[in-house]
Design goal:
The chain is mainly β. It has one domain: Methylamine Dehydrogenase, Chain H (7 Propeller). The protein contains six helices and 30 strands. It has a five-stranded mixed beta sheet, with no helix packed on it. A hairpin with a 5-residue loop joins strand 5 and strand 6. The longest helix is centred in the first third of the chain and has 7 residues. It is globular, with a radius of gyration of 21 Å. It starts with 6 loop residues before the first helix and ends with a strand. It comes from Echinicola arenosa. This is DUF4374 domain-containing protein.
Length: 443
């Protein structure tokens, strides 16, 4: 569980911002694009993943430690998350969410005996994270390892999603002609402030009859995001294909266009599917949300497992793919098999992607200019074969700046400040590492 120590009183004496668990309400007619100006004294939570059996697997759990924003960007600051931080309740690498002001941490335990348990913590500096008494477990609806994201609606709601029990229509009777493989999708609306399940819906989400007869189906849902109007949820998909004759999962197949599920909000009803003609990769991400709402009302998303490398796609405010827009990162960077581990939109059409490419696991950072549909590698971060971003989750946006944690596996690193409008990079606080461990974000 989370722990406290004497750092609590020391940080409070410094007069930093007091924790508030209230949030600004938002209705569907308001612009829900998040305010990106960091308040003075904002806490920045640094998260590190502990190795389990193998270096970099992150299966030993997650440690967190909070510093002020000013300390986070100060290269004289030294942060020792693994010795001085607090453990997060999670059997594996936790999927953390933090309030827009940085003062509240939200967590749904991932797998293990507490898998699916939602809890909320006040961030009080250092290793002091004070848990509220009330928790709620969503595992009976969304499983013990749900994928989830906090919505940009004043920290009011989080959406957990899951697909379970994928079976063929003729699994019980092979004499019936094969028609499809489908699972039961769960979309659950979690009230973050009152710690309760606000609503949930469960249903099958069919593809076209032709796609299903060929064995295609939705294998996983992830990366839910609320559109700017606040009336639709858009949810990323990870696709799979089964052999209709044998029922076996196929490892190679001709992929369909990238697909996103759209449902009404807040009712969670009327699921439909939109399809891109510009890419064929999945848009579910892995450990963080790859669907990003920008101030222009468009949702920008990255793909992975694409046959032509990852792309950046765009969904219009009318919740349809803009098939005139696409950034092929292979083409833009002159690389092969670019794979976006995660990315974050910053401001004014600029975002940053954390990538690898080819057969290497080495991580790089790419600056994306969405207005010009271009991309370029960022200089100024460690060029080290042991830099990994495959489990990366957390970014802090402060107006035009983005905070990212970068360190080679098992080696010390730093917080880096990416100045989006100039393309410059500044070095922030030092991150003290341990063998086999790595950092998975700043929140």
């Amino acid at each position: 569980m989370f722990i406290t120590n004497s750092l609590k009183s020391r940080f409070l004496q410094l007069g930093l911002v007091a924790v508030t668990l209230s949030a600004v309400s938002c209705n569907s007619e308001e612009d829900i694009t998040p305010d990106t100006e960091v308040e003075a004294g904002r806490w920045v939570t640094i998260a590190g993943a502990v190795m389990g059996e193998n270096p970099g697997d992150g299966n030993g759990g997650t440690q967190i430690y909070a510093v002020s924003y000013e300390d986070a960007i100060d290269p004289e600051t030294e942060i020792n998350v693994f010795d001085n931080g607090a453990p997060v309740k999670s059997n594996r690498t936790a999927r953390l969410q933090v309030s827009e002001d940085g003062n509240t941490l939200f967590n749904i335990a991932y797998a293990g005996e507490n898998g699916g348990e939602y809890s909320k913590f006040a961030v009080e500096g250092g290793s002091s994270y004070m848990q509220e008494d009330v928790t709620v477990n969503i595992s009976q609806y969304a499983g013990t390892a749900p994928r989830w994201s906090k919505l940009y609606n004043g920290d009011q709601n989080g959406i957990a999603v899951n697909v379970a029990n994928i079976t063929a229509n003729n699994a019980e009777d092979e004499t019936i002609p094969y028609q499809y493989h489908r699972g039961i999708a769960t979309i659950l609306d979690l009230d973050l402030q009152n710690t309760l399940i606000q609503d949930y819906k469960q249903y099958e989400i069919p593809l076209t009859a032709e796609e299903e007869l060929a064995g295609h189906c939705i294998f996983r849902l992830d990366a839910p995001v609320l559109n700017q109007a606040g009336d639709k949820l858009l949810i990323g998909t990870w696709m799979r294909k089964y052999d209709p004759a044998t029922g076996d999962s196929e490892s190679e197949w001709e992929r369909l266009g990238t697909k996103t599920v759209v449902v009404d909000y807040p009712s969670l009803e009327n699921p439909t599917i939109i399809t891109s003609t510009q890419a064929n990769g999945d848009c579910s991400g892995y450990r963080s949300n790859v669907n990003q709402l920008a101030e222009d009302g468009y949702i920008y998303q990255s793909t992975n497992r694409d046959t032509n490398g990852s792309h950046i796609l765009r969904i219009t405010p009318n919740n349809e793919y803009d098939n005139s827009f696409s950034i092929s990162l292979d083409e833009a960077l002159g690389l092969t098999d670019v794979y976006v581990d995660t990315w974050k939109y910053v401001n004014n059409g600029i975002g940053y992607a954390l990538i690898r490419h080819g057969e290497s696991d080495q991580g790089y950072i790419v600056r994306l200019d969405l207005n010009q549909q271009t991309a370029a590698l960022v200089d100024g971060i460690p060029d080290d074969a042991d830099v990994r971003f495959n489990q990366y989750q957390g970014f802090v946006v402060n107006e035009n700046d983005l905070l990212v944690t970068v360190s080679p596996l098992g080696k010390n690193g730093n917080i880096y400040v990416l100045h989006s409008q100039t393309g410059e990079v500044s070095v922030g606080a030092k991150l003290v590492n341990q063998p086999g461990n790595h950092f998975i974000g700043a929140f």
